[in-house]
Design brief:
8 strands; globular; two-stranded antiparallel sheet; alpha/beta; six-stranded mixed beta sheet
Length: about 270
Protein backbone atom coordinates (compact mmCIF):
# COMPACT_ATOMS: atom_id res chain seq x y z
CA UNK A 1 0.00 0.00 0.00
CA UNK A 2 1.52 3.32 -1.06
CA UNK A 3 2.02 6.22 1.28
CA UNK A 4 -0.21 9.15 0.30
CA UNK A 5 2.56 11.53 1.41
CA UNK A 6 5.12 10.01 -0.97
CA UNK A 7 6.10 12.61 -3.59
CA UNK A 8 5.25 11.76 -7.18
CA UNK A 9 7.40 12.60 -10.17
CA UNK A 10 6.29 15.78 -11.88
CA UNK A 11 7.32 16.15 -15.53
CA UNK A 12 8.49 19.46 -16.95
CA UNK A 13 6.13 21.02 -19.53
CA UNK A 14 8.94 21.06 -22.10
CA UNK A 15 9.67 17.33 -21.76
CA UNK A 16 9.20 16.80 -25.52
CA UNK A 17 12.32 18.87 -26.22
CA UNK A 18 14.47 16.03 -24.85
CA UNK A 19 14.25 14.30 -28.23
CA UNK A 20 16.34 17.08 -29.80
CA UNK A 21 19.35 17.04 -27.44
CA UNK A 22 21.38 14.61 -25.32
CA UNK A 23 21.73 17.38 -22.70
CA UNK A 24 20.16 16.84 -19.28
CA UNK A 25 17.00 18.90 -19.61
CA UNK A 26 13.41 18.35 -18.43
CA UNK A 27 14.49 15.89 -15.74
CA UNK A 28 11.32 16.38 -13.76
CA UNK A 29 11.17 16.52 -9.98
CA UNK A 30 10.03 14.49 -7.02
CA UNK A 31 9.03 17.02 -4.40
CA UNK A 32 12.01 19.40 -4.22
CA UNK A 33 14.51 16.83 -5.53
CA UNK A 34 15.40 15.10 -8.77
CA UNK A 35 13.67 11.80 -9.50
CA UNK A 36 15.62 8.67 -8.59
CA UNK A 37 16.00 7.70 -12.26
CA UNK A 38 17.65 11.03 -13.11
CA UNK A 39 20.08 10.69 -10.17
CA UNK A 40 21.00 7.15 -11.21
CA UNK A 41 21.49 8.21 -14.84
CA UNK A 42 23.85 10.97 -13.72
CA UNK A 43 25.88 8.60 -11.56
CA UNK A 44 26.16 6.13 -14.44
CA UNK A 45 27.31 8.86 -16.86
CA UNK A 46 29.87 10.08 -14.32
CA UNK A 47 31.20 6.53 -13.86
CA UNK A 48 31.49 6.03 -17.64
CA UNK A 49 33.43 9.30 -17.96
CA UNK A 50 35.83 8.28 -15.18
CA UNK A 51 36.32 4.86 -16.75
CA UNK A 52 37.09 6.46 -20.11
CA UNK A 53 39.96 8.36 -18.50
CA UNK A 54 41.32 5.65 -16.22
CA UNK A 55 40.87 2.30 -18.01
CA UNK A 56 43.98 1.58 -20.12
CA UNK A 57 43.60 1.24 -23.86
CA UNK A 58 44.19 -2.28 -25.20
CA UNK A 59 46.99 -1.32 -27.61
CA UNK A 60 47.75 -4.94 -28.48
CA UNK A 61 44.14 -5.54 -29.48
CA UNK A 62 44.00 -2.34 -31.53
CA UNK A 63 47.27 -3.23 -33.25
CA UNK A 64 45.96 -6.69 -34.10
CA UNK A 65 42.72 -5.32 -35.55
CA UNK A 66 44.58 -2.80 -37.70
CA UNK A 67 46.96 -5.51 -38.91
CA UNK A 68 43.95 -7.57 -40.00
CA UNK A 69 43.01 -4.65 -42.28
CA UNK A 70 46.53 -4.80 -43.73
CA UNK A 71 47.77 -1.65 -41.96
CA UNK A 72 51.26 -1.71 -40.47
CA UNK A 73 51.62 -0.28 -36.97
CA UNK A 74 54.35 0.90 -34.62
CA UNK A 75 53.65 1.16 -30.87
CA UNK A 76 55.42 3.98 -29.02
CA UNK A 77 55.42 5.39 -25.49
CA UNK A 78 55.71 8.93 -24.14
CA UNK A 79 57.73 9.98 -21.12
CA UNK A 80 54.57 9.70 -18.99
CA UNK A 81 55.12 6.14 -17.80
CA UNK A 82 51.64 5.68 -16.32
CA UNK A 83 48.19 7.29 -16.28
CA UNK A 84 48.75 9.12 -13.00
CA UNK A 85 51.85 10.86 -14.36
CA UNK A 86 50.09 11.52 -17.66
CA UNK A 87 47.25 13.38 -15.92
CA UNK A 88 49.54 15.43 -13.69
CA UNK A 89 52.31 16.15 -16.21
CA UNK A 90 50.84 17.11 -19.61
CA UNK A 91 54.32 18.12 -20.79
CA UNK A 92 55.58 14.52 -20.53
CA UNK A 93 52.75 13.36 -22.75
CA UNK A 94 54.19 15.53 -25.53
CA UNK A 95 57.62 13.86 -25.46
CA UNK A 96 58.59 10.39 -26.63
CA UNK A 97 60.43 8.11 -24.24
CA UNK A 98 64.08 7.26 -24.89
CA UNK A 99 63.17 3.73 -25.99
CA UNK A 100 60.58 5.03 -28.44
CA UNK A 101 63.03 7.54 -29.88
CA UNK A 102 65.49 4.69 -30.39
CA UNK A 103 62.75 2.65 -32.04
CA UNK A 104 62.05 5.49 -34.47
CA UNK A 105 65.73 5.86 -35.24
CA UNK A 106 65.85 2.22 -36.31
CA UNK A 107 62.85 2.63 -38.63
CA UNK A 108 63.07 3.69 -42.25
CA UNK A 109 64.43 7.21 -42.69
CA UNK A 110 63.09 7.79 -46.18
CA UNK A 111 60.82 10.86 -46.42
CA UNK A 112 57.09 10.25 -46.19
CA UNK A 113 54.18 12.44 -47.22
CA UNK A 114 51.93 11.99 -44.19
CA UNK A 115 51.97 10.36 -40.78
CA UNK A 116 48.96 9.03 -38.89
CA UNK A 117 49.25 8.94 -35.11
CA UNK A 118 46.74 7.38 -32.71
CA UNK A 119 46.98 8.39 -29.03
CA UNK A 120 44.80 7.27 -26.15
CA UNK A 121 44.52 10.81 -24.77
CA UNK A 122 41.86 11.40 -22.14
CA UNK A 123 39.43 8.74 -23.38
CA UNK A 124 40.65 5.24 -24.11
CA UNK A 125 36.99 4.39 -24.81
CA UNK A 126 36.93 6.80 -27.75
CA UNK A 127 39.95 5.23 -29.42
CA UNK A 128 38.72 1.71 -28.65
CA UNK A 129 35.39 2.44 -30.33
CA UNK A 130 36.31 4.73 -33.22
CA UNK A 131 39.97 4.54 -34.28
CA UNK A 132 39.77 1.30 -36.25
CA UNK A 133 36.58 2.07 -38.25
CA UNK A 134 37.77 5.59 -39.04
CA UNK A 135 41.23 4.46 -40.13
CA UNK A 136 39.64 1.84 -42.37
CA UNK A 137 38.11 4.79 -44.27
CA UNK A 138 41.00 7.26 -44.02
CA UNK A 139 44.04 5.18 -44.94
CA UNK A 140 42.67 3.90 -48.28
CA UNK A 141 41.86 7.51 -49.20
CA UNK A 142 45.42 8.61 -48.43
CA UNK A 143 46.77 5.67 -50.42
CA UNK A 144 44.57 6.67 -53.36
CA UNK A 145 46.30 10.04 -53.26
CA UNK A 146 49.60 8.16 -53.67
CA UNK A 147 50.83 9.44 -50.31
CA UNK A 148 53.81 7.59 -48.88
CA UNK A 149 52.81 6.50 -45.38
CA UNK A 150 54.92 5.03 -42.56
CA UNK A 151 53.31 2.58 -40.14
CA UNK A 152 50.43 3.97 -38.10
CA UNK A 153 52.02 5.12 -34.82
CA UNK A 154 50.11 4.02 -31.71
CA UNK A 155 51.23 6.17 -28.78
CA UNK A 156 50.60 5.32 -25.13
CA UNK A 157 49.82 8.28 -22.87
CA UNK A 158 50.09 10.74 -25.74
CA UNK A 159 49.02 14.36 -26.05
CA UNK A 160 48.22 16.09 -29.34
CA UNK A 161 51.71 17.54 -29.80
CA UNK A 162 53.30 14.08 -29.76
CA UNK A 163 52.59 13.96 -33.47
CA UNK A 164 55.04 16.80 -34.11
CA UNK A 165 58.17 14.79 -33.24
CA UNK A 166 56.94 11.80 -35.22
CA UNK A 167 56.16 13.91 -38.31
CA UNK A 168 59.53 15.61 -38.00
CA UNK A 169 61.34 12.27 -37.83
CA UNK A 170 59.66 11.04 -41.00
CA UNK A 171 60.06 14.44 -42.72
CA UNK A 172 56.32 14.33 -43.43
CA UNK A 173 54.51 17.47 -44.47
CA UNK A 174 51.14 16.24 -43.15
CA UNK A 175 50.49 15.10 -39.56
CA UNK A 176 47.15 13.55 -38.55
CA UNK A 177 46.58 12.74 -34.88
CA UNK A 178 43.57 10.76 -33.65
CA UNK A 179 43.10 11.18 -29.89
CA UNK A 180 40.53 10.53 -27.18
CA UNK A 181 38.93 13.79 -26.06
CA UNK A 182 38.14 14.77 -22.50
CA UNK A 183 34.92 12.84 -21.75
CA UNK A 184 31.69 14.64 -21.05
CA UNK A 185 28.71 13.30 -19.16
CA UNK A 186 26.83 12.75 -22.42
CA UNK A 187 29.80 11.67 -24.56
CA UNK A 188 32.46 9.60 -22.77
CA UNK A 189 33.77 8.22 -26.09
CA UNK A 190 34.35 11.32 -28.21
CA UNK A 191 37.34 11.18 -30.57
CA UNK A 192 39.12 14.22 -31.98
CA UNK A 193 41.36 14.64 -35.03
CA UNK A 194 44.18 17.21 -35.11
CA UNK A 195 45.74 18.08 -38.44
CA UNK A 196 49.02 20.01 -38.81
CA UNK A 197 50.93 21.02 -41.92
CA UNK A 198 54.74 20.86 -41.58
CA UNK A 199 54.52 19.89 -37.90
CA UNK A 200 57.79 20.37 -36.04
CA UNK A 201 58.57 19.47 -32.44
CA UNK A 202 58.86 22.48 -30.15
CA UNK A 203 57.87 24.84 -32.97
CA UNK A 204 54.30 23.97 -33.95
CA UNK A 205 51.63 25.43 -31.65
CA UNK A 206 47.89 24.94 -31.21
CA UNK A 207 47.37 27.84 -33.61
CA UNK A 208 49.02 25.76 -36.34
CA UNK A 209 46.52 22.91 -36.01
CA UNK A 210 43.02 22.25 -37.27
CA UNK A 211 40.69 20.28 -35.03
CA UNK A 212 37.77 18.06 -35.98
CA UNK A 213 35.94 17.27 -32.76
CA UNK A 214 33.04 15.25 -31.32
CA UNK A 215 33.38 12.11 -33.43
CA UNK A 216 31.09 9.56 -31.78
CA UNK A 217 27.79 7.78 -32.33
CA UNK A 218 25.67 10.79 -31.36
CA UNK A 219 28.03 13.38 -32.83
CA UNK A 220 30.01 13.72 -36.03
CA UNK A 221 29.93 10.58 -38.18
CA UNK A 222 33.04 8.95 -39.63
CA UNK A 223 32.01 10.02 -43.13
CA UNK A 224 31.50 13.64 -42.08
CA UNK A 225 34.84 13.71 -40.25
CA UNK A 226 36.60 12.15 -43.24
CA UNK A 227 35.10 14.73 -45.61
CA UNK A 228 36.32 17.57 -43.40
CA UNK A 229 39.79 16.08 -42.98
CA UNK A 230 40.32 15.43 -46.70
CA UNK A 231 39.23 19.00 -47.44
CA UNK A 232 41.83 20.30 -44.97
CA UNK A 233 44.51 18.03 -46.45
CA UNK A 234 43.84 19.27 -49.99
CA UNK A 235 43.70 22.93 -48.99
CA UNK A 236 46.81 22.67 -46.82
CA UNK A 237 48.80 21.38 -49.76
CA UNK A 238 47.55 24.23 -51.95
CA UNK A 239 48.16 26.98 -49.37
CA UNK A 240 51.07 25.28 -47.57
CA UNK A 241 49.65 26.04 -44.14
CA UNK A 242 47.19 24.83 -41.53
CA UNK A 243 45.61 26.14 -38.35
CA UNK A 244 43.87 29.46 -37.87
CA UNK A 245 44.56 30.53 -41.45
CA UNK A 246 42.91 27.42 -42.91
CA UNK A 247 39.13 27.37 -42.55
CA UNK A 248 36.88 24.34 -42.94
CA UNK A 249 34.42 25.27 -45.68
CA UNK A 250 32.68 21.91 -45.99
CA UNK A 251 28.93 21.74 -45.54
CA UNK A 252 26.66 18.82 -44.80
CA UNK A 253 23.55 18.86 -46.94
CA UNK A 254 20.41 16.86 -46.34
CA UNK A 255 16.99 16.62 -48.00
CA UNK A 256 14.69 19.48 -47.03
CA UNK A 257 12.23 17.21 -45.23
CA UNK A 258 15.05 15.80 -43.07
CA UNK A 259 16.35 19.28 -42.29
CA UNK A 260 12.91 20.39 -41.13
CA UNK A 261 12.49 17.26 -39.04
CA UNK A 262 15.84 17.88 -37.34
CA UNK A 263 14.95 21.45 -36.34
CA UNK A 264 12.00 21.63 -33.94
CA UNK A 265 11.72 25.40 -34.54
CA UNK A 266 10.49 24.66 -38.06
CA UNK A 267 7.76 22.23 -36.95
Amino acid sequence: MSDSNEPTTTEDPWHNLKQFTPARIALGRAGMSLPTSACLDFQLAHALARDAVNIPLDFAGLEQRLNVHGFQTLTLQTQAENQSVYLQRPDLGRLLSASSMACLQHSALIPFDAVVVVADGLSSTAIEHHAEPFLSLLLPELQRKDYRLPPVCLVKHGRVAIGDAIAEHYAASLCIVLIGERPGLSSPDSMGIYFTYQARSGISTDADRNCISNIHDNGLSYQQALKKLLFLVDEAEKLQLSGINLKDQTTDTAPNDLQKQANFLLN
